[in-house]
Design brief:
By secondary structure, this protein is an all-alpha fold. The protein has one domain (77-441): A middle domain of Talin 1 (Up-down Bundle), CATH 1.20.1420. It has helices at 4-7, 21-31, 38-43, 56-72, 83-92, 97-124, 127-138, 141-152, 156-185, 200-229, 235-264, 270-278, 287-310, 312-319, 323-348, 352-381, 391-408, 415-434, 441-450; strands spanning 188-189, 192-193, 196-197, 412-413. The protein has a two-stranded antiparallel ribbon with strand order 1-2. A two-stranded antiparallel sheet has the order 3-4. The radius of gyration is 25 Å and the shape is globular. Belongs to the Ca(2+):cation antiporter (CaCA) (TC 2.A.19) family. Residues 19-34 have a biased composition (Polar residues). The chain crosses the membrane at residues 73-93, 99-118, 130-151, 163-185, 206-227, 239-260, 288-312, 324-348, 355-381, 387-408, 415-434.
């Protein structure tokens, strides 16, 4: 337990016995002696010996170690952090591309978890409005960093697939697992089954936004098909103009959604905020320390992402799998692992509002925030990133949004609905795995060649 219990263990009062304040402090320090062992130094996230030292140097070193310790012990997946230096060395020394990809793949998973932890710590100190904005900004930081690195490298297929994959993994995989496992645990008795419930108003609002985002992909695909039939020579530039204009509109809508959620209609989201507040925070770090952790981890993610993306072409050639599959299935697992676990755990505790906030909220961030932002970034750096996804990808996304909307519109869920969402995700995953490695490359190469 915390060192406060040691402070209260002795009823000896120094002032009554004529002792000075410094003697009292010495007494308190003595009472902390049981907590100065190696186990306390390495594993106690509440107290680190040296934090109460009179020496600034000792105090600084102790606090630095305390922040490091709390960060390292913030999640079970952090044992994979040993892969970070190995992954950086592997990339720097040009190891086998498969090894570089695999090691950095596993290195980014715990970095995403630490990034999420630092964001939560910083957000909790800034109040609800600023905290919510910070969470919205950094919630998908890993996907954003990986995608910017891939975009700079001209891997537009990977970028588009990873954006679509992040949305589908949240809508189908995460929500499906929440509904399935939460529904099984809270299914009631045979013949008298029960369903888990969540805010139908929030679900309807977010599903409406997801439907809008699917329309933003369907329209460019439809225009491209029409222009192709007519033999238009300027179809690629037309698609880029449409995509960039649409991206600006989507970003404006995303800002309006943030204002709606955090300010004007925050009452609709009160229940999930309340439940978030119910979660016990056993250990925390200060805002400055959290900001430093955020910066350091972001840099490490960028380095690992650089090596990960750089090995994709060789992986595609040697393993004969498509870039679309890597982007759709593998990269979202890297960025969303921590969120996936969080959503399922709170669903098992019957806190479905919070589970839905994690799953659908993250999808909206990607669809209305990150993807349009990447279109603008591509515009700035001269890469033809557009909202014209392949027809197959667009159809998969539109169908998924349709199924999810029908599933959540009543504000209730059960394990059968979870199984259906997981089933659809598996069907889409198998379809992309079966896709030849060069199937989606043609139109993007053409788009790249015809754009200036």
């Amino acid at each position: 337990m915390s060192h406060r219990s040691y402070r209260n263990a002795d009823e000896h009062t120094p002032l009554i016995n004529g002792e000075s304040a410094s003697s009292a402090q010495a007494g308190n320090h003595t009472q902390h002696q049981p907590k100065t062992g190696l186990r306390t130094f390495l594993l106690d996230t509440q107290y680190t010996p040296g934090n109460d030292s009179e020496s600034i140097a000792v105090r600084g070193a102790a606090y630095t170690w305390h922040v490091t310790k709390v960060t390292l012990l913030s999640g079970y997946v952090n044992f994979l952090l040993v892969m970070v230096p190995i992954g950086i060395v592997a990339g720097a020394l040009n190891w086998n591309p498969t090894a570089v990809f695999t090691i950095n793949f596993f290195a980014i998973i715990p970095l995403a978890a630490v990034l999420s932890f630092a964001t939560e710590m910083l957000a909790s100190k800034l109040g609800q409005a600023m905290g919510g904005l910070l969470n919205a900004t950094f919630g998908n930081a890993v996907e954003l960093i990986v995608s910017i690195v891939a975009l700079k490298d001209g891997q537009i297929v990977v970028v588009q697939s990873s954006m679509l994959g992040s949305i589908l993994s949240n809508l189908l995989l995460v929500m499906g697992m929440c509904f399935l496992f939460g529904g099984l645990v809270h299914r009631g008795t045979n013949g008298d089954g029960r369903e888990q419930s969540f805010s139908a108003a929030v679900a309807q609002t977010t599903c409406s936004l997801m439907t809008l985002s699917s329309a933003s992909l369907v329209i460019p695909a439809a225009l491209y098909a029409v222009l192709s039939q007519n033999g238009s020579q300027d179809k690629n530039s037309s698609i880029l103009i449409l995509s960039r204009g649409t991206a600006i509109v989507l970003l404006l809508l995303y800002v309006m959604y943030l204002v709606f959620q955090l300010r004007t209609h925050s009452n609709l989201f009160d229940e999930e905020t309340q439940q978030e507040g119910d979660a016990e925070e056993e250990a925390s770090i200060g805002p400055v320390a959290a900001a430093i952790v955020l910066v350091v981890v972001t840099v490490l993610v960028a380095i690992c992402a650089e090596y990960l993306v750089g090995s994709i072409d060789d992986i595609v050639e040697s393993a004969n799998i498509s870039k679309a599959f890597i982007g759709l299935i593998l990269i979202p697992i890297v960025g969303n692992a921590a969120e996936h676990v969080t959503a399922v755990v709170v669903a098992l505790r019957d806190k479905m509002d919070l589970a839905m906030a994690v799953a659908i909220g993250s999808s909206i961030q990607i669809a209305l925030g990150v993807t349009p932002f990447l279109v603008i970034v591509g515009w700035i750096i001269g890469q033809p990133m557009s909202l014209h996804f392949e027809t197959f990808q667009t159809v998969a996304f539109a169908v998924s949004v349709l199924v999810v909307t029908y599933t959540v519109q009543d504000g209730k869920s059960n394990y059968l609905e979870g199984a259906m969402l997981l089933g659809l995700y598996l069907i889409i995953a198998v379809a992309f795995y079966a896709t030849p490695s060069d199937a989606f490359d043609g139109s993007f190469a053409q788009l790249l060649g015809n754009s200036s």
